[in-house]
């Protein structure tokens, strides 16, 4: 049956759902990719996640996000996630800049949105959530990638991109993964070893800085320094290495639910245009990927998913109008998702990832 949503599953997830149906209680991980403004096609689906799925989950459920994925889960981990989503969505859509904003201005606006999203009174609840275990992946810049000098930073990124095209492992010479993790339960991605990895216990003292840093796109926002509990250095967008989270997300008969902008996964930020670079089948085996169909995307304003280039592509009022229309249009995705869950028809809609 065709629809506005595409449901794809890795090998083990496909088998389990076809045999048993879909049970939210089988979810052990929620995954959220980098993507900036692309998240606006998911905000209505996130409401279904908060309203219909989260209450049926059993602890512990790990959330792993890079960049906007971490910001989305910062909404989900609050006492009233639906209100948090609405608050974040409004602040994100309405952000406004001067004609030629510099890095400091964009960083300042991100901090304002963070203040709107995560108040001091939310921190204790978020790090002790009864069901969710928040984990945030970011990167610590090495060598040229630790500087804020535009020429040197651009040179370092160019070198990293070139080396990555030859070997993804080469990114370890430029970046160190930094996983801010909930200490209560060890996640399945805790011991990944493809790149240098720093593990930092997540706490009320560093949660806001971790969320800010994983959204700090190099050359667009300033890196974050002085994060409590972390090694000295400059922390940046976790999507540089883990763009679409090519990581072991779930094991055994447990599933990773992945609401995504696309029906495919790319490992790192520099892999976006590398046709030969794909996520590992072993990492996606337990993944259930839910995304809007290409046909649905064509019905959105301007026939596309929002992205950060819209800030320069359209005047402020036109961008805001298009983004609001996108969110309204995506109510259809939420309605379809809720209906699939209520009718237990996901197995019949499932394709292989």
Please tell me about this protein's structure.
- With 353 residues, this protein is an alpha/beta fold.
- It has one domain.
- Helix content is 37%, strand content 15%.
- The protein contains 14 helices and ten strands.
- Strands 1, 2, 3, 4, 5, 6, 7, 8, 9 and 10 form a ten-stranded mixed β-sheet that branches.
- Strand 8 (255-259), helix 9 and strand 9 form a beta-alpha-beta unit.
- Helix 2 (43-53) runs parallel beside helix 13 (331-343) and helix 3 (68-76) packs antiparallel against helix 4.
- The two termini are 17 Å apart.
Low-confidence stretches: none
Percent helix range: 25-40%
The rounded Rg comes to: 19 Å
**Number of strand elements:** 10
Q: What is the N-to-C succession of helices and strands? A: EHEHEHHHHEHEEHEEHEHHHHHE
State the separation between the terminal residues, measured CA to CA.
Answer: 17 Å
- What class do helices, strands and sheet pairing give? alpha/beta
Question: Rough shape?
Answer: globular
Mean pLDDT across the residues is: 97
Query: Count of helical segments?
Result: 14
Tell me the strand percentage band: 15-25%
Structurally, the number of domains stands at 1
Main pleated sheet: 10 strands, mixed
């Amino acid at each position: 049956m065709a629809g506005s949503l595409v449901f794809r599953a890795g090998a083990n997830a496909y088998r389990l759902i076809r045999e048993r149906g879909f049970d939210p209680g089988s979810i052990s991980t929620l995954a959220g990719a980098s993507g900036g403004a692309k998240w606006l096609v998911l905000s209505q689906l996130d409401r279904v996640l908060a309203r219909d799925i989260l209450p049926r989950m059993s602890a512990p459920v790990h959330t792993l996000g890079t960049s906007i994925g971490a910001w989305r889960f910062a909404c989900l981990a609050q006492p009233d996630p639906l209100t948090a989503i609405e608050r974040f969505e409004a602040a994100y859509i309405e952000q406004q800049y001067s004609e030629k904003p510099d890095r400091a201005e964009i960083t300042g606006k991100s901090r304002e949105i963070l203040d709107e999203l995560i108040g001091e009174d939310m921190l204790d609840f978020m790090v002790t959530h009864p069901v969710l275990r928040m984990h945030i992946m970011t990167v610590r810049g090495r060598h040229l990638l630790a500087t804020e000098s535009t020429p040197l930073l651009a040179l370092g990124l160019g070198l990293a991109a070139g080396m990555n095209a030859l070997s993804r492992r080469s990114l370890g010479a430029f970046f160190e993964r930094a996983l801010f993790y909930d200490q209560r339960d060890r996640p399945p991605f805790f011991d990944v070893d493809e790149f240098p990895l720093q593990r930092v216990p997540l706490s009320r003292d560093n949660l806001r800085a971790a969320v800010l840093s994983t959204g700090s796109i190099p050359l667009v926002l300033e890196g974050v320094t002085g994060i409590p509990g972390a090694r000295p250095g400059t922390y940046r967008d976790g999507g540089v290495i883990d763009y679409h989270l090519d990581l072991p997300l779930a094991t055994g008969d447990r599933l990773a639910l992945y609401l995504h902008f696309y029906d495919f996964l790319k490992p790192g930020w520099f892999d976006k245009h590398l046709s030969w670079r794909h996520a590992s089948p072993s990492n996606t085996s337990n993944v259930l990927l839910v995304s809007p169909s290409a046909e649905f995307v064509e019905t959105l304003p301007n026939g596309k998913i929002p992205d950060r280039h819209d800030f320069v592509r359209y005047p402020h009022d036109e961008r805001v109008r298009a983004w609001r229309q996108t969110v309204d249009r995506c109510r259809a995705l939420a309605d379809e998702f809720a209906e699939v869950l209520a009718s237990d028809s996901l197995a019949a809609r499932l394709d292989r990832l």
